[in-house]
Amino acid sequence: MHLKTLTLRGFKSFASATTLHFEPGVTAVVGPNGSGKSNVVDALAWVMGEQGAKSLRGGKMEDVIFAGTAGRPPLGRAEVSLTIDNTDGALPIEYTEVTISRTLFRSGGSEYAINGQACRLLDIQDLLSDSGLGREMHVIVGQGQLDAVLRATPEERRGFIEEAAGILKHRKRKEKALRKLEAVQTNLTRLTDLTSEIRRQLGPLGKQAEVARKAQVVQADARDARARLLADDLHQLMTAMAKETADEAAVVARRDEVQAALDAARRELGALEQEAAKAAPALTEASETWYRLSAVRERLRSTQILADERRRLLGSAQVEQASQQDPDDLEAQAERVRASQAELENEAGQARSALEAAVEHRSAAEGEAAEAERLLANALRAVADRREGLARLAGQVAAKRSRLEATEAEVGRLRATLAEAEQRGDRAAQDFAALETQVAGVEEGEEDLDKAHEEASERLETARQRIAELEGELQAAERDRATLAARIETLELSLTRKDGAGALLSASAQGTLGSLAALLHVAPGNEEALAAALGPVADAVAVESVEAAVDAIRTLREDDAGRAHLVMPTAGQASGPVGPLPADAVAALDLVEAPEHLRPTLAALLADVVVVDDLAGAQAVLRARPELVVATRAGDLLAAGRAAGGSTGAPSVLHLQAALEEARSAHDEAVARGERVRFAIASAQEELAAAETEHQDTLYRLHQSDATLAAVAEQLGQLGSVVRAARAEAERAQASLDEASRTLEQDKAELAELVERLEAAEADPAESSDVIAERTRERDRLAELAAVARSKETEARLALRTLEERVRALAGRAEALARAAATEREAREKAAERERVRAQQAAVAAAVSVGARRTLVLIESSLARAGAERERAEHARTERERELTAVRSRVDELARELAQLTDVAHRDEVARAQQQLRLEQLEARAVEELGTEPADLLAEYGPEQPVPVTLAPGEELDRERPASVPYVREEQEKRLRAAERALALLGRVNPLALEEFAALEERHQFLTTQLADLKKSRADLLEIVREIDERVEQIFADAYRDTAEQFEKIFPRLFPGGEGRLVLTEPDSWLTTGIDVEARPAGKKVKRLSLLSGGERSLTAVALLIAIFKARPSPFYVMDEVEAALDDANLGRLLEIFSELREDSQLIVVTHQKRTMEIADALYGVTMRGDGVTTVISQRMSEETA
Length: 1186
Hints:
By secondary structure, the protein is α+β, with helices and mostly antiparallel strands.
């Protein structure tokens, strides 16, 4: 078996499909750094199932896909195919060539295939595991893996040997078996719990099934009685309904007669009402006519009064007074104002002419003044040109003096700034020292606060733990209470009697004291003995007297409730057996406590009874005292002439009563314990609240302290900044002060020189200024004349503006007077029009008054005629109303009689409907409760049908008794009550108990079978695990011995004169032991691998791997630059070993060493093109040599 070809498509730098052909022997892969040689090794590991991205020198598995270059886009998938020559059948597959393929898509999907058939990763690992290839990939030694071999733990080194020995498949088998064993154990536990639970349920369910069987018989008897009673009810109800139907017919006939009379009276009433209706419009019309005429009369009277009043008012109105102003006078005043306006306009024209003259005079004066100013400026400019040199020198002197003064001021300012900065720095330093002292105090307080907070946190946690513990105790107490309550309920149900004693106890009849078992208290452990000694009396009911017992027996007979044993108080003293008792025998009377009034009765029942431990002791006591009755604590009874004993399926009543009392006591204790725990929880919650408050308080104070420290720290930072800023400012001020001092000294020297030059220049004679003075006087005179001209111009402008304003005012007054005259004329015209309208309205009012009087006379006569007509209509209506009243009375009487007859008929109908409803209900009950149609029920269970005699459970047929008896309702009611009472005595009946019991019993049997099968499966799995462990131990032991032997041979060859060996960490446990490596090169005493040099460590790792290779050879090995750290001598030794390995295995070596290339049978050159894609070339060395 050897690797034949490797094809890469899109894997890392192999963007294009690249195929490498391998042959037996040594194949060397060579090429420069970064060309992609190691990608060939990664591809081999990846296609054989490597799952770790870091092992493939990547961050995630997607990194193995070609990521693209500047000139080539990234690919969407990576695919590697490895073809293995399987001619020797090393792989367990029926192919001479096996091709393993793996494809990874960029979306994350992955595919595996063997010979083109899709498969799982597990299938590939199983295929390769038999050839020594496993998950550790020890046959592939990548870069840096040699040091990883040395850093590996002893258990990891063991994994290398196990993988080479092919133990991996056995490990997988064991893991699979252990998983199955764990699942089997889980199922076994679950089935055990289920079986126990079902076994626990079978007992009570069996009792319920027995009760259900009895209930079936009683329910059949009750159903028969109920059916006969229901049939009787149906028969009686149907008879009553037939009788009531005949009575209803007579009522209906009388109702029809009254209905006919009522219809005739209503027709007469209708005719009268129609006549009244026809006459009503005439009456209404007459009334409305009279009312309308009355209304018209009133309106005419009001109109007449209003017309008279209006005529009076219009006749007394006065003529409006005219205005005091005459329009003609106003127009004359307007003409006079217009004349004054024309005069003022002439004066304004003269003022404009004067203004124009003043403007011309001012312009001439200003021109002359400007010419004089120009001449003066020329003269001054000439003098300035002559004195320019002297002025410039004087200016330089003044400027230098100003600069000198500014420099002196700057020096003073800098000295003040320096002093202020030094003072500010000193103050900040003092404040900083004070704050540091304050911080020290706060930090001391912070330590106390931290301690207090930690203590509060501990107390809070303790309180919480205490509450959790108490809540757990409370839950346990509640569980115990619930369990005990259920047990009490079960025991009470078990003690509930279904016979005559139960009937007496449930009836609570007068004179009944209760169950004897409930009144007794037996010493623990002796319940069965006392139950055997008392016999049936243990189930007896205690009564007050003989009379109460007689009443109880009569009650049981009358109610047919069964039989019961009764005990009653008797006179006498309580005493036990007479004479000394044998050893280990105890009088039964001493083991039981009872009420004083029952103590003599109990003594009579237990007079000669003693209790011993077992039957052997009972035999001994009976031989010594034959007159005694001996009971064992197991419930056996021996006496002269009789014995009883054996096993019992159910506990005795005394035992159940004792268990009930014990359960009640334990229940009370659980309740009390729960209350105590609740009280403790309340106290603990108060402590928790206090602890939380203290915790919050300490936390708040701690936060406050932290805030204070932060504030102080911030202030310290600010003060430090202030100190640093003040010092920096002082340094800058000092530097500026030094520079200003140097500038001041230099300026003083330059000023002295300039002053000497100015004094020398001023000593020269100056030119006369007479011309300049003359021209200055001329300029001033002309300027004054120009000012006078401007003043006159201003006065002319003011006079013109005044006249214009007066003209505008007069024009406005003339217009206002004209408007007033027009308004006055219009007002006088409107007053004349109003006078004309008033006269016209007064004439109209007089005409209206006359017409109203004439119309009132006519209205009065019409109103009298309308009143007479209305009175005649009212009289006719009164007559008709009297006739209608009489007819309505007759109709009402007939309607009342009809209503009474209708009510009677309705009540009969309601009663019949109720009877019909009851009949339907009885029929529905027959169908729902009995499943029988009413007709069939009457035919089978009617009163005329005989009642068959039923037999009680266990009762035999008496041929002398009749098979049936006549129907008697009282007997059937008694029969039904007896059946219902019997059902009540049976208690709660589970109707599905029989089916549930059968199903539960069948399930219990099935689960028992499954449980046996699971136990057998567990035993088989444990046997498989044991066999695998033995096999693994044997294989590993052989592989370890061979590897250790090979290591002791290989190490001296690689380290001449050195020693090396493998050591087991746990020699006594071959299944769990690890492997340590001891290496001592020649001339050194060290054995620890960490003390070796890098080359020695690499060579030691190579020695270990080669030892594994030789001990358990693999078909091929892949090595990536394993000899890179070796010198020439060690390389030669390693190549000798490679030559030995090539005899049995195929070697694929990635190398840079020339000597390694020389021993290779084939070379693959790997290079990377400029586009970042790897390409390969191959060369077979044997052909080249030939």
